[in-house]
Amino acid sequence: MQSDQYSYLPILMQLILAVGFVVGTIIISGKLGPKRTSETKDKNFECGIESVGNARIPFSVKYFLVAILFVLFDVEVIFLYPWAVNFKELGIEGMLKMIVFMALLLVGFFYIIKKKALDWE
């Protein structure tokens, strides 16, 4: 192997270790896990409250839209942090790029407001 290929050896070792751990855990839990089943043991349990009704109730698409928009704007805020840390080094060019970035963000935000995606009914 060439010297630059040796630099990938730790990654390969970590991959083998991770896959081996997962496979080993699955095999061991299958051999050592509980063997007896009963109706009470197989019942779904959440917070001590008995399950009532069907779990397949349809959700409004607005719920998922608000969740996706939250993640989208949250990720865009993450881009502001490195810019703020390196504000002086970026100079006027960095400021102009951030103005363009914020303008595009605001255009998207006003589009969402115009489409009433955040109005909860």
TrEMBL record:
TM stretches of this protein? 6-28, 63-83, 95-113
Name the source's superkingdom.
Bacteria
Q: What is its main location?
A: membrane
Where in the cell is the protein located? Cell membrane; Membrane
Q: Which UniProt keywords apply?
A: Cell membrane, Membrane, NAD, Quinone, Translocase, Transmembrane, Transmembrane helix, Transport
Q: Which GO terms describe its cellular component?
A: NADH dehydrogenase complex; plasma membrane
Output the Pfam families linked to this UniProt entry.
Oxidored_q4
GO MF annotations for this entry?
A: NADH dehydrogenase (quinone) (non-electrogenic) activity; NADH dehydrogenase (ubiquinone) activity; quinone binding
Q: What is its EC number?
A: 7.1.1.-
**What enzyme category does the UniProt record give?**
translocase
* InterPro entries in the cross-refs: NAD(P)H_OxRDtase_bac/plastid (IPR023043), NADH_UbQ/plastoQ_OxRdtase_su3 (IPR000440), NDAH_ubi_oxred_su3_sf (IPR038430)
Q: How does it sit in the membrane?
A: Multi-pass membrane protein
Under Gene3D superfamilies, the record lists:
NADH:ubiquinone/plastoquinone oxidoreductase, chain 3
Instruction: Write out the catalysed reaction.
Output: a quinone + NADH + 5 H(+)(in) = a quinol + NAD(+) + 4 H(+)(out)
Under the heading PANTHER family, the entry gives: NADH-QUINONE OXIDOREDUCTASE SUBUNIT A, NADH-UBIQUINONE OXIDOREDUCTASE CHAIN 3
Q: How does it assemble?
A: NDH-1 is composed of 14 different subunits. Subunits NuoA, H, J, K, L, M, N constitute the membrane sector of the complex.
Purpose = NDH-1 shuttles electrons from NADH, via FMN and iron-sulfur (Fe-S) centers, to quinones in the respiratory chain. The immediate electron acceptor for the enzyme in this species is believed to be a menaquinone. Couples the redox reaction to proton translocation (for every two electrons transferred, four hydrogen ions are translocated across the cytoplasmic membrane), and thus conserves the redox energy in a proton gradient.
Q: Which family does it belong to?
A: Belongs to the complex I subunit 3 family.
Protein name, as recorded: NADH-quinone oxidoreductase subunit A
Q: Which organism is it from?
A: Flavobacterium hydrophilum
